[in-house]
């Protein structure tokens, strides 16, 4: 390549470099912000982190844990569904417990049948047999007495007419018949008296114990169906058919911890906000009748006025709202609860973090 061509290319490159630098140095118009940054609307307002919760008396969502452990066989509701208190939410495998409850119920029924048998004694058929045996013993005694009387009279008239052995045998037969009559009479009286009161009481206590065991087993069987504890909305279901659950909850492979199986909240026409006021700002917190507050939903321009509900009069260590298992013991806060009407279509859900400003009217 000739030197004059190389020189020309170098000049063109230099011009391009200068042009690029000039273009890059030109001022650029800033892009508009996606949302307006949070700002304090009050002259002497207090800022606090807040978390959206269901509008319940407790101010918190209701976490439901199963009372037994086992494999989930059915999930009976879906997230967002409104349910009444007592509505079945999910079913845990109850095969073994159902068989145990049925066995104990049958044992209680058998004990009850025995108790009713004792209470219904004497049975009329048994009493009739005992009466017939007493009548037979009476007839046998009468026959033995007649035989002995005849032999005795004959012996007294003429000792040679009856042998001494025959007379003794007749006397022994009479005594045996009298003893049999006494036994039959006592047996008849015993049968007519019915079951002994102590036997009835003992059987009654056995039945009561077995029935209580059956009731306890049936109550435990009902625990294999987790039910709603309030009228509200199913916010989250953290399990599925086939998962293993326990009274500790369900294991979350993401957080590597145990959590509730179902989370419920109140109907979301109204929601609550729990905010935590730093202890060093408590002297600036207005009195309840003068409190006013506003929250801003992060990532939006949505600002909502809040209605004061109550203060929890107990200062506690601050928790990390993003992970409530962590506590900062070097910083203590006072929980304050507000409520607001949920605007239709607004992206606000329980568990959401918001910015809260508290001022004075």
Task: Write the topology of this structure.
Blueprint: H1 3-25, E1 46-54, E2 62-64, E3 70-75, E4 82-83, E5 88-92, H2 95-119, H3 124-157, H4 164-193, H5 197-222, E6 225-227, E7 232-237, E8 244-245, E9 250-252, E10 257-259, E11 262-265, E12 270-278, E13 291-297, E14 303-311, E15 316-319, E16 327-341, E17 353-360
Antiparallel strand pairs: 1-12, 1-17, 2-11, 3-5, 3-8, 4-7, 5-6, 7-11, 9-10, 12-16, 13-14, 13-17, 14-16, 15-16
Helix pairs in contact: 2-5, 3-4
Protein model, in words:
This protein has 361 residues and is an alpha+beta fold. It has three domains: 46-59 and 266-360, Beta Barrel (Elongation Factor Tu (Ef-tu), domain 3); 62-93 and 224-265, RNA polymerase II/Efflux pump adaptor protein, barrel-sandwich hybrid domain (OB fold (Dihydrolipoamide Acetyltransferase, E2P)), CATH 2.40.50; 122-194. The chain is 38% helix and 27% strand. It has a six-stranded antiparallel barrel with strand order 1-12-16-14-13-17. Helix 2 runs antiparallel to helix 5 and helix 3 (124-157) packs antiparallel against helix 4. It is rod-shaped, with a radius of gyration of 47 Å. The two termini are 84 Å apart. The mean pLDDT is 87.
Work out the number of β strands.
17
The appropriate CATH architecture of the largest domain is: Beta Barrel
User: Uncertain regions: pLDDT < 50 for 5+ in a row?
Assistant: none
* Sequence of secondary-structure elements: HEEEEEHHHHEEEEEEEEEEEE
Give the helix level as a range of percent. 25-40%
* Name of the level-1 CATH class of the largest domain: Mainly Beta
Radius of gyration of CA atoms, rounded to a whole number: 47 Å
CATH superfamily of the largest domain: Efflux pump adaptor protein, beta barrel domain
Oligomer: single chain
- Taking the alpha carbons of the first and last residues, their distance comes to 84 Å
Q: Work out the strand percent.
A: 25-35%
Q: Sheet with the most strands?
A: 6 strands, antiparallel, barrel
Strand order of the largest sheet: 1-12-16-14-13-17
Integer count of domains = 3
Arithmetic mean of pLDDT: 87
Please give the count of helices.
Answer: 5
Q: How does the helix and strand content classify structurally?
A: alpha+beta
CATH topology value of the largest domain? Elongation Factor Tu (Ef-tu), domain 3
């Amino acid at each position: 390549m000739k030197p004059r061509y190389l020189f020309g290319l170098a000049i063109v490159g230099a011009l391009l470099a200068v042009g690029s630098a000039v273009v890059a140095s030109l001022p650029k118009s800033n892009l508009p912000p996606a949302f307006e940054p949070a700002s304090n609307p009050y002259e002497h307002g207090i800022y606090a982190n807040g978390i959206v919760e269901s509008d319940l008396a407790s101010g918190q969502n209701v976490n439901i844990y199963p009372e037994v452990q086992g494999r989930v066989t059915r999930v009976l509701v879906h997230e967002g569904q409104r349910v009444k208190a007592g509505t079945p939410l999910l079913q845990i495998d109850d095969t073994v417990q159902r068989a145990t409850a049925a066995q104990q119920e049958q044992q209680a029924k058998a004990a009850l049948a025995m108790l009713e048998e004792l209470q219904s004694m004497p049975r009329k058929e048994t009493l009739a047999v005992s009466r017939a045996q007493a009548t037979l013993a009476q007839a046998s005694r009468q026959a033995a007495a007649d035989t002995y009387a005849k032999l005795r009279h004959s012996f007294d008239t003429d000792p040679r007419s009856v042998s001494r052995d025959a007379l003794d045998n007749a006397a022994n037969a009479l005594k045996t018949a009298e003893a049999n009559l006494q036994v039959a009479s006592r047996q008849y009286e015993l049968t007519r008296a019915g079951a002994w009161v102590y036997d009835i009481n003992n059987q009654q206590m056995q039945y009561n114990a077995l029935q209580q065991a059956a009731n306890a087993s049936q109550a435990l069987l009902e625990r294999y169906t987790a039910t709603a504890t309030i009228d509200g909305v199913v916010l989250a279901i953290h399990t599925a058919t086939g998962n293993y659950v326990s009274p500790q909850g369900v294991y979350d492979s993401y957080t590597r911890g145990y959590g509730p199986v179902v989370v419920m909240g109140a109907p979301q026409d109204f929601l609550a906000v729990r905010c935590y006021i730093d202890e060093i700002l408590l002297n600036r917190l207005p009195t309840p009748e003068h409190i006013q507050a506003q929250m801003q939903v992060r990532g939006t321009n949505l600002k909502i006025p809040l209605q004061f509900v109550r203060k929890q009069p107990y200062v506690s260590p601050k928790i990390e709202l993003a992970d409530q298992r962590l506590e900062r013991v070097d910083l203590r806060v006072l929980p304050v609860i507000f409520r607001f009407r949920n605007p239709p279509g607004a992206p606000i859900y329980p568990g959401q973090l918001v910015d809260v400003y508290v001022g004075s009217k």
